Amino acid sequence: MFISLFFVIITTGSSSRLTTIQELTNKIAIFYSDKFLITIRKEEVQFLNIIRSKHVGNGNCTAPVQVVTKVIWQALETFDDPAERLSEQVDFYENQIILKRTNNDQVEALYFIKRQASVSIKVLQLMLDPINHIKTSPEDEAELQDVRDQHLKFKRCTPRYWKM
């Protein structure tokens, strides 16, 4: 059986004015069966090299679906730093608003933060379908459940105001 998956990875773009999925993300298409795994991406994804050397090269992952699970986990982990950064920025601007020290540039910056958060939430939602379509052996099910739990953690950790 041949399975294809599509994952999106949040990048840490250098500009705070990036607001679209295309600008904020790097996509990975994954095609695999029980005998092979192919990834297609536009840009280099560093964690793929780490997975290859740490898990595939030393024999920790012997089945393609095990590698796919590692890739998904790492893709979800790419949300962590940008989410933390956005949260810190929101805290800063909220403080400025409460202290009535706002200007038009700050309001504009807050708009871009909200857009980035909104895109992140949409991307997380899009990742759920491929995660749910992965079929593993019973001995690998725990690792896949960890990936599902990680996805749920990120969805639950998104502040309410990001969803406006």
Helix content: 55-70%
When the domains are counted, the total is: 1
- Number of helices, counting only DSSP H or I runs of 4 residues or more: 6
Radius of gyration: 18 Å
* SSE order, one letter for each helix or strand: EHEEHHHHH
Brief summary of the model shown:
This protein is α+β, with helices and mostly antiparallel strands and 164 residues long. The chain is 57% helix and 13% strand. The chain has one domain (3-163).
Structure description:
By secondary structure, the chain is of the alpha+beta class. It has one domain (3-163). The protein contains six helices and three strands; from the N terminus they run E-H-E-E-H-H-H-H-H. The protein has helices at residues 21-24, 46-56, 64-77, 80-98, 104-132, 141-157, and strands spanning 3-10, 25-32, 37-41. A hairpin with a 4-residue loop joins strand 2 (25-32) and strand 3 (37-41). Helix 4 (80-98) runs antiparallel to helix 5 and helix 5 (104-132) runs antiparallel to helix 6. The longest helix has 29 residues, at 104-132. The chain is elongated and about 60 Å long. It starts with a strand and ends in a 7-residue tail after the last helix.
